[in-house]
Predict the structure.
Amino acid sequence: MAAAATAFADSAKPIGIVDIDADRNVTSVQVNASTPELGSLARLAFGAHGAYRLVAGGAAYDLNFTQVAAAQVRVEITRGATGLPVHSEVVTGTSARNALLRAADVAVAHTSKLRGFFAGKLAFISDRGSGMEIMTSDLFGGEVVGWPGVSRQIIRPRWSPDGRRLIFTSYRNGFPDIYVLDLATRNPALFVSVQGTNTGGRYSPDGGRVAMVLSGEGNSEIYVSNTQGKMISRLTRYPAVKAGPCWSPDGTRLVFTSEPGPQLYVMPAAVGATPQRLPTNISRYCAEPDWCRWDANKLAFTMGVGRGFQVAVYDFSTRQAMQVSAAPLDAIEPCWLADGRHLLYTARQANQRSLWILDTETRKATRISPSALGQVSQASYWIQ
C-alpha cells in the first residue's frame, strides 16, 4: 500500500493545560521559512514543544528555515534582540519534510539543553470502522504508511531498536499471538504462538532479546526470548495476572504490571530474580509502564484517578510519583519522546481516541492526530 497523504497538521492544536509557574523555563521563538509548507510544519513543531512559545516579534531567538534542495533545509538561528548569529547548518533528510524536522531538532539543540524529538517516527493503531490497522508516520503525521491485513484486533505495535521491525500481538488466527512485521518486506511473521495468550512483546534496548507475557504454563508469566522467538526463559513464578513488560534503558531490569492492584513491579531480567513492588504511592491502579530510554530515572505509567485515568511519572532518584496529565476524561498508554521531558499519550473520550504530546514540566498538551485517521491509539516512538 502506498503512503497516504493524510497529515496531522490539519487538526493539531494546543490546549491550555499549562503550569504558569513553569513559564520562566519557556523560550520565545519567531519562526520563518522559505515556503508555506515548511513554515506551517515548523510552527506546528515548536508550538507543540513545551519549552518554546511562538511569538510574532521580540523573540529570544529567530529561527529561519530555507529549502536548498529536494531533501535539504538550511536552519539559521540568530538572537532576536541583537540579530547576532548563533548557528547555521544545512540538514539533509529523506524528504523536504523530514529535513525540516531534522533542522528543527538542530534548532532545539542550539537554543536549549534538550535533545530534539521532532524527527522521530510513530507506529500506532488506527481504526476507521472497518477494523484495526497498523500505521507509521513522522511525529506530525507526514508520510503516513498503512500496514493492512494483519487482523481485526491488534495490540500495541512496538519498534525494534533499529527501526526496521514492529512487534505486536494479533488475533490473526483467532487467538492472541505475537507477530513481527518486517517493514522492508511488509510481511508479518509469527514470532511466538503457544497455548494460551501471547502478548506484550517488547525488544530489549540492544535489540538482542524480547520480553513478553505468556500463559502457556497455566498462569500469565514474564518470559524472555531471543529475537527469533526461541530459547524462551520464564522469569516469574507466582499466581497473579501480569502485563506490559518494559526494559530499563541498560537492559538489566524489567518493569511490569501485576495484580493485586494492579501495581508496578521491577525485577532483574534474569531467571530466579525476585520482583519488587515499585513504591509509587499515588494510586491503587498503576499500569502501562514506559521506562524512559533517555533518562533512566524516569518511568511514565497510567494511574487511576477517581473513575478515570491519567498519566503519572515516577522518579527513581527521589522515589516519588507525580500526576502530569489533566485530560478531560482519560489519558492512557504513555510513551516517552527523545528528550526525557515530553511524552505521547492516548486521549480517550466516549467513542474517541486520539494522540497527544504532553510536556511533563509545563503540562502543555497538544493533539497531533486528525479525525481522518479514525480512532488512533497505542503509539510507539522511534528515533535514531
Observations:
- Residues 121-382 form a domain with the Neuraminidase fold (CATH 2.120.10.30).
